[in-house]
Amino acid sequence: MGKVYRDAQDALAGVLRDGMMIMSGGFGLCGIPSLLIGAIRESGVRDLTIVSNNAGIDDAGLGLLLQTRQVRKMISSYVGENATFARQFLAGELEIEFNPQGTLAERIRAGGAGIPAFYTKTGVGTAVAEGKPTAEFDGETYVQERGIVADLSIIHAWKGDEEGNLIYRRTARNFNPMMATAARMTVAQVEHLVQPGDLDPDHIVTPGIFVKRLVQVGPGFEKRIEQRTTRKKLMA
Fold first, then answer.
1. Residue 152 lies in a domain
2. Which pTM does this prediction carry?
């Protein structure tokens, strides 16, 4: 069976279940797999653990899953742009596992590389290190962090071929490549889908061996801007 599916719902058919761990690529709203997030929302699965740098905003990205209370736990670095997230956390309705951003990235990379744990100085002596093993190397204390392997990764790529080879565009790359390697099933949405052999091998970031299913975004696909910053036009 080919890897290309008709739409996001088909691409996730038979994969989703209650209580699973899902990695979701993106940084803010940049490079997020919005079609796949929408399909998860429509599926109605619940009690999800979501691994993502942040939780999007209230009306976009992973914020949509928080609105429907499908998320039980977030493993994240930053959640300051989402009022729904803050409200549910303060009410005791949402569990949070905060990670320094570099630690989160390395936990994901380690999971994809088959590394069960590693040591880092980041977080030593803070709440981040509570309950975790520590060790001394060269006279310095390090805290042990575990690699993460999810049940499902959903990612966004700029271009892909029908064999699942992927290319990302600029900052929309962010967490997507490492998450593609760190799950038992990876489903990607791509903006441009091409035939095998049409991608320059030197430009491929994620080899197709990591990607099980693909869906192409439609022509009306919207790329939201989280914060638009402008300045007054300078007069000549």
1. yes
2. 0.91
